[in-house]
Design a protein that fits this description.
The structure holds two protein chains of two kinds. Chain A contains 16 helices and no strands. Chain A has helices at 10-41, 53-85, 90-115, 133-163, 171-202, 211-245, 252-265, 282-294, 296-316, 334-356, 359-365, 369-399, 405-434, 450-486, 505-509, 513-537. The radius of gyration of chain A is 23 Å and the shape is globular. The N and C termini of chain A lie far apart (59 Å). By secondary structure, chain B is α+β, with helices and mostly antiparallel strands. In chain B, a hairpin with a 2-residue loop joins strand 1 (58-63) and strand 2. The chains are: A mainly alpha, B alpha+beta. At the A-B interface, helix 6, helix 7, helix 8, helix 9 and helix 11 of A face helix 1, strand 7, strand 8 and strand 9 of B. Chain A: It is a multi-pass membrane protein.
Chain lengths: 549, 156
C-alpha cells in the first residue's frame, strides 16, 4: 500500500499544530480551575478576591469538556486524514484555517463572558438561568467552526473517493469521516436550542423559553458528544497502537462496523440523562435506555479487538501460557503505556455508564458526585490518556523532532501520576456520591447535617487526588512543550498499522453513507418524535430568564 | 465479514448480559412500578403560591398512614424545610419550582428528582427507619445552590 513512510504535509502539519496549541492551553487553564474546585470542596480553602466557585466550575467544564476535546480531535483528524489520504488541496486547507479561527474566536468570546462573571451557567447552560448573549454566541462560533472543518474533511474524502474508484477509503480517514458525521448530526440539536431559543431569549427578542424542549435538544447533543470524544481514542487504539507494538490491526472490517454502530446508536439516547425529569413518560425513557445499552456493543467489539491484537502480537514473539503475551508488550514505550492505562480505566468507566443509564440505579446516583467520578474515568482518563499518548508521537511528527528517552520516561511517570491521582479523586467521588453528596456544588455542611459531615473525608481525598492530577498536568505540559519547541530535530513516525487480512469487500459496503445516515435519522425520529410533540403540545407557560449568580 | 469464534462467544456473552440487565430494569419498572419520577402535570411557575396544593405547602394526611408532602422549591430554599414524618408512613412527595431548575434529593435514600419550572414532579417513598435525613438541591441553580437545605425527621 501507499507509503508507510508517508508524512503529514508540512502545511497541514501547521494546521494541526495550531489546534493542539489551543487544546493544551485549555488543558493548563481548565486543569488549574479543576485543582481550585477540589481545594474549595475540601472545606480548607477559600477562593481569593471574591471569585465564585461556579465561575471556576463553568471555566473548567467549558475549557476541558468542549475546548480541549474539540480542538484536539479536529486537529488530530486533520493530521490523520492528511496522513492516510494525502495532502490537502489549498482550498481544503484554507477552510481548515477558517474553521480553526472561527472556533478560536468563539472560544475567546465565551471565555471573556465567563471570566467577567456574566455566564456562570456551567457548560450545560440549562435555561432559565440566562447568560449574556455573547456566551451563547461564542459557543455557536465554536460549533460553526467545527462544522466548517468537518466539511473540509468531507471534501477531501470525496476527492480521494473520486481518485480511487471502487476502493475502500483508508481506515483512519473512514473513521474521521464517521466521527464528523456523528458530530454534525448531533450538534444540530444544540444549535437548534441556541439559535432558536437561547439567543433570541437572551437578546430580549423573546421573553419566555420552553425549558423542557431546550433541555431535550441539549441532551440530544450531550450524549453523542461523549462518543465524539471517545471515537478518536478508538481510532488511536484500532490503528495506531497495533503499529506501535509491532502488530497488526485485528480486523479492518470489524473496526469499520464498530464505528458505524456508534454512529447509529449513540444519538437517540439523550433521555437517559433525563430519567428523573417530569414531562417525559416512562415508556419513552425506557425506549432510549434500550438504545443506550445497544451502544455498549461496539465497545465490546473494540475491547475484544484490542486484546486480540495484544495477544496475537505476544504469541508471534514466542509468548506461551495463558498470559505470557502480556510480558511481550512494550511497557516502557509511553506511546503504548498511556493509552493502555486509559483502556484499563474504561472497564470501571463503562460499567459505571451502564449503572447510570439504568432507571432504578440512576435514582440513587443522579446528580450526585458519583456522576462526576464516572466521567472523570471515561473522558478524563481513558480519552485524555489516549490523547496524551498520541501527542507523544503526533507533536514531534508535526514539528520535525524526536522524543528523547528522558521525555519518554517522564511520560511514563506522567501516566502513573495520572492513574494514582484519578484513583483517589474519582474513587472518592464514587463513594461520596453513593452516600448522597451532590455534584456541581461548592463546599457546604448543609447546616451541620451529620450526613454531609460524613462526606468531608471523601472531599479531602478528592483534593489530594486533584492535586496529584494537577502535577500530572504540569508534567504533560512540560513534555508537549519540549516536543513542540525544544526536542532534538529528526523524523518521528506517524504510526499506521496494516490489517491482519487485506481489506474485504465489506469495507467498501461500510461506506454506504446514505444507508447509515438513513438508519440514524430513522432511529432518531422513532426515539424522539412522539415525546417531542408531547412536550410542545402540553407545554406549561414558558420561563423568564434568571441571573442568580 | 469474518467473526472469530472467540469473538462470537465474547459478544454473545456481552450482549446476553445487556439483555439480562434490560429485562431486570424493564420488569422492575413496568411490572413492579419502580418507574423514574415522570409526572406530566404542568403548572404556571409564576402562580405556584396560588395553585393548590402548593398554596399551602407541607405534610397532609391523606389516609391511614398515608401522606402527601408538598414542597415549593425556589432560589435558594425549600418550603417547608423542617418536616416530621411518622415512621412507616407512605409519603407521596410533590415538588415544583418557582424559578429555575433545581434538584430535590433526600440524601441516603432513593428520593431524587429533577424540579423544573412549569412541571410538578412526584415520587412515593415509605420511610421505614427513624432518623434524620438531609434534603438538598443537587442541580446547580445559582450562587446559593449549596446553601439550599432542609431536614426530614422520621419519628416513632
Amino acid at each position: 500500500m501507499m507509503g508507510e513512510t508517508m508524512k503529514v504535509d508540512r502545511r497541514d502539519a501547521k494546521l494541526t499544530l495550531a489546534h493542539l496549541y489551543v487544546a493544551f492551553i485549555a488543558l493548563a487553564l481548565g486543569g488549574l480551575a479543576g485543582l481550585l474546585q477540589t481545594l474549595v470542596r475540601s472545606g480548607k480553602f477559600n477562593l481569593p478576591a471574591g471569585i465564585s466557585y461556579y465561575t471556576i466550575l463553568t471555566t473548567h467544564g467549558v475549557l476541558l469538556g468542549l475546548v480541549l476535546t474539540t480542538f484536539f480531535i479536529i486537529g488530530f483528524q486533520f493530521a490523520a486524514v492528511s496522513r492516510t489520504s494525502g495532502a490537502f488541496s489549498d482550498r481544503v486547507r484554507f477552510w481548515g484555517w477558517v474553521g480553526f479561527w472561527t472556533m478560536t474566536i468563539g472560544t475567546a468570546m465565551t471565555a471573556f463572558f465567563i471570566l467577567t462573571g456574566q455566564a456562570a451557567v456551567l457548560y450545560t447552560f440549562y435555561a432559565p438561568l440566562q447568560a449574556h448573549a455573547g456566551f451563547y454566541l461564542g459557543l455557536t462560533l465554536v460549533v460553526v467552526g467545527s462544522w466548517i472543518s468537518g466539511f473540509a474533511i468531507f471534501a477531501h474524502y470525496a476527492r480521494w473517493k473520486k481518485q480511487n474508484p471502487g476502493k475502500a477509503s483508508p481506515l483512519l480517514t473512514f473513521m474521521s469521516v464517521t466521527n464528523m458525521i456523528l458530530w454534525l448530526v448531533c450538534t444540530l440539536g444544540v444549535a437548534a436550542t441556541v439559535l432558536f431559543q437561547l439567543l433570541p431569549w437572551s437578546l430580549g427578542i423573546t421573553d419566555r423559553i420552553n425549558i423542557l424542549v431546550s433541555r431535550t435538544l441539549f441532551w440530544y447533543f450531550g450524549h453523542p458528544l461523549v462518543y465524539f470524544w471517545l471515537l478518536p481514542a478508538y481510532m488511536i487504539w484500532y490503528v495506531v497502537i497495533p503499529k506501535v507494538i509491532g502488530g497488526k490491526i485485528f480486523s479492518d472490517s470489524l473496526a469499520r462496523l464498530a464505528f458505524i454502530l456508534f454512529l447509529i446508536f449513540s444519538i437517540p439516547v439523550g433521555f437517559h440523562h433525563q430519567l428523573l425529569e417530569p414531562g417525559i413518560t416512562p415508556f419513552w425513557k425506557y425506549v432510549q435506555v434500550i438504545l443506550t445499552f445497544m451502544v455498549v456493543i461496539p465497545s465490546l467489539m473494540t475491547a475484544f479487538a484490542m486484546f486480540a491484537t495484544f495477544e496475537s502480537y505476544g504469541r508471534s514473539k514466542g509468548a506461551t501460557g495463558l498470559f505470557g503475551w502480556l510480558r511481550k508488550l512494550p511497557w516502557g514505550d509511553a506511546r503504548f503505556f498511556a493509552p493502555f492505562v486509559g483502556m484499563l480505566f474504561f472497564i470501571p468507566g463503562g460499567a459505571g455508564g451502564i449503572i447510570n443509564a439504568s432507571h432504578q440505579l440512576d435514582q440513587v446516583v443522579h446528580n450526585t458526585v458519583w456522576v462526576t467520578g464516572h466521567f472523570h474515568l471515561t473522558i478524563a482518563t481513558t480519552v485524555v490518556l489516549t490523547f496524551f499518548g498520541a501527542a507523544y508521537w503526533l507533536i514531534p511528527h508535526l514539528s520535525g523532532r524526536v522524543m528523547t528517552k528522558a521525555m519518554n520516561r517522564l511520560a511514563i511517570i506522567q501516566t502513573v501520576v495520572w492513574a494514582i491521582g484519578m484513583t483517589f479523586m474519582s474513587g472518592s467521588m464514587h463513594f461520596a456520591g453513593l452516600l448522597g453528596a451532590p455534584r456541581r456544588s461548592a463546599f457546604s455542611t448543609y447546616g451541620n447535617s451529620p450526613q454531609a459531615l460524613e462526606w468531608i473525608p471523601y472531599q479531602i481525598a478528592q483534593a489530594v487526588g486533584g492535586t496529584i492530577l494537577f502535577i500530572g498536568i504540569i508534567l504533560v505540559l512540560v513534555i508537549v512543550t519540549n516536543l513542540a519547541f525544544f526536542a532534538p530535530k529528526g523524523e518521528t513516525e506517524f504510526p499506521v498499522a496494516e490489517a491482519a487480512e487485506p481489506a474485504e469487500r465489506t469495507a467498501l459496503a461500510m461506506e454506504n453513507w446514505k444507508l447509515w445516515i438513513g438508519i440514524t435519522v430513522a432511529l432518531i425520529l422513532i426515539a424522539y418524535t412522539i415525546p417531542f410533540v408531547d412536550m410542545i403540545q402540553n407545554a406549561p407557560p414558558g420561563s423568564k430568564g434568571y441571573k442568580l449568580w | 465479514m469474518h467473526l472469530h469464534k472467540y469473538e462470537k462467544i465474547w459478544l454473545a456473552f456481552g450482549i446476553g448480559c445487556l439483555f439480562v440487565f434490560l429485562t431486570v430494569i424493564g420488569v422492575s419498572a413496568f411490572a413492579e412500578g419502580n418507574q423514574p419520577p415522570s409526572c406530566l402535570t404542568t403548572i404556571d411557575p409564576e402562580k405556584v403560591d396560588q395553585t393548590p396544593p402548593f398554596d399551602k405547602p407541607g405534610l397532609v394526611k391523606t389516609g391511614n398512614n398515608e401522606y402527601q408532602l408538598n414542597i415549593v422549591v425556589s432560589a435558594f430554599a425549600f418550603t417547608p424545610n423542617q418536616i416530621e414524618i411518622p415512621k412507616g408512613a407512605k409519603v407521596t412527595i410533590n415538588v415544583t419550582s418557582k424559578d429555575v431548575i433545581h434538584g430535590f434529593e433526600v440524601a441516603g435514600t432513593n428520593v431524587n428528582m429533577m424540579v423544573e419550572p412549569g412541571y410538578i414532579n412526584t415520587l412515593t417513598k415509605t420511610f421505614d427507619k427513624t432518623g434524620e435525613y438531609t434534603i438538598l438541591c443537587n442541580e446547580y441553580c445559582g450562587a446559593g445552590h449549596h446553601m439550599m437545605t432542609g431536614r426530614i425527621k422520621v419519628v416513632d
